[in-house]
Amino acid sequence: MNSQFKKGVLDLCVLTILAKGDSYGYDVADTLSGKIQMSDGTVYPILRKLASDGYVSTYLKESQNGPPRKYYHLTDLGRQKLDADKKEWDEFTKAVKGILEDEDK
Amino acid sequence: MTKKEYLDKLAKELGSMSYNDVKDILSDIENHFEESKIAGKTEEEAAAQLGDPSELAADYKEGMTLPTILKKKEQKAAAPKAQEPTSQTVCFVLLITLFVAIPAWVTLLFIILGIVLSELAVAAAALALLITCWFYGPFLASGLLFGLALLFFGVFGYAVTYFAIKYFVLGTKWYIDSMKKIWKNGI
User: Fold this and answer.
1) Which pLDDT score is estimated for A60?
2) Contact between chains at B63 and A39 (C-beta distance less than 8 A)
């Protein structure tokens, strides 16, 4: 899939995953790459940027069989961004769909 | 690619970032390798799934460096600029300095000079009187007393001179600083 397509919406996907509950990098990468064809690495710069913008916060949590995991937690600001972006995405996809269906006729 | 090769390549590509950023990023990716290992993947598999390290580095740079630079630029732009002094400020500072501050400063300077000179004169007189008394016995008692009195007056005078000079210097500094402030920020 076109990588420019993906880039814009991956933020939204990451925020959505974190809205369901706190998670760590590998888990987010695994979840996403299981559904969308993408490199595992892609989520890390996204998580880092979301953290630096204040949309997610991080904390370390011991793991049973490996190094401590850095968990990401959606902040209130992140939730607001998710709601806004989701709304925008829905409107956008609806519009694109409408255009594509018009062309088909 | 092994974990070490991958991290080395990534570190090299991230080169322009700050040490702390690079350390943080490498630790995230290293942890990813650890988690992959636990999930039963080899280092080669994990590296392949992570994607090209230079692309990853580019993503990091795109996400971090550019907005950081922009933020810094915005902050710089938002910071209050040192404005050019307005004509009103210039007039105020110049008038006060020329017609009040400088005459006052010169007057005070002369007063202090006067005090210092008279101080020297008093000290010299006291000293002369004491010496004279020493040589001409008859005046001894009264002359010595007078000389000592003059000497004490001299010591008192020195204390006054010391504080006068001290506050004169402090006052001058204060005046220059406050004028600078007014020049920068307006009245």
Assistant:
1) 92
2) no
